[in-house]
């Protein structure tokens, strides 16, 4: 055994140089073989396959450019501007294509064609957008109650505002529950700005509504206790959907969308002319009542849509009361109303403020209104109930703080009544049925006496 090993070692020593040369050559050959195999696999798997084409947009919407992106693995390149192909690797016409490559080539061509079509469509849309921008100037912004922004447009023709006419369910025939929205005479709402309705009449706030064709022009409907006249149509106004007209886009946005609202066909008068006459009579009656009782213990109620709905019930309980209520009204509107009533001597010794449903207000603003009304008058501030309102709790906190800080201010706790009687409310949890409005009126009356 030792002799065998000695012979092997002797052979290795004598041929060491040759063994090293052979080993190096073998290793190099192995490396080359592995490299060639890897290249063959990589080329077979990825040659001519499109990974992605990313369109890049400049600042202008109608200028599209496709950046030149090299796809080193596939040999595909995309140029800028026109989106043409410089080199498509295995897809050029000088090479035989396999069936898979033919499919890939067709997919690439389809993608390039669709990219060009999208570019053309984008350019067309951009041109239309620029044309609209030239036709309609950007809307100006208006702060509402210092807590939100809304937009409105300037109308070509000014529109009028009618004095509201009020009625309750007993004045008409029940029509069912409707969706109620708001609109104004702007290009966004109407596609025009002249304020002319489908009936040919000029739209008027507190008077004009758009309704389904089953209601003829001149039909009068009672919504939230207020009488409106059908004078307009709308493409989206079908079935149990009514659009209430407002003078500005801000008011329409503020009004929002109301659901499950009880609507009645008004039986008190017929036709638009009768409504105008009714409006005048109502205005005269309310003013005279306020003047006769304003400085001798009379009651004044200043409110929003809840007071509109409860007006008839409240006046039945509190004879001679002056009710000034409007749908969508915010607390900020009360300042001018109070000053006007004080100037005419029609502001009662007892003043009910029912405002807060349509937006929050600060303690400072609330105190300013109290000071404007005066410490010689008793003020009854109705808190709000509306779980769907983001500002519901904030408003009630402010009212509670004001009542605690002023000896002539009493908080009327409608929120507690509302929480205890969910059956009073429509689906929005704010507006009410006739039973609810009667309870609302009773709650305010009970606070007075």
Molecular structure report:
This protein is an alpha/beta fold and 449 residues long. It has 12 helices and 20 strands. The protein has helices spanning 2-14, 16-46, 99-135, 187-190, 249-255, 271-293, 305-317, 334-344, 363-373, 392-405, 414-420, 434-448, and strands spanning 55-57, 64-66, 69-71, 76-78, 85-88, 140-144, 148-152, 160-161, 172-183, 204-205, 208-210, 220-223, 226-232, 241-245, 257-266, 299-303, 322-325, 350-354, 378-382, 409-412. The strands form 6 sheets. Strands 9-14-11-13-12-15 form a 6-stranded mixed barrel. The chain has a 5-stranded parallel beta sheet with strand order 17-16-18-19-20, sandwiched between helices. Strand 12 (220-223) and strand 13 form a beta hairpin. Helix 7 (305-317) packs across helix 12. The N and C termini lie far apart (129 Å).
Strand order of the largest sheet: 9-14-11-13-12-15
Unreliable stretches: 44-94, 135-158, 269-296
Structure classification: alpha/beta
Question: Helix coverage percent of residues?
Answer: 40-55%
Beta fraction? 15-25%
Could you tell me the radius of gyration in angstroms? Answer: 39 Å
Alpha carbon gap, first and last residue = 129 Å
Overall shape: it is elongated
The overall strand count is 20
Number of helices: 12
Biggest sheet layout: 6 strands, mixed, barrel
Question: pLDDT average, as an integer?
Answer: 75
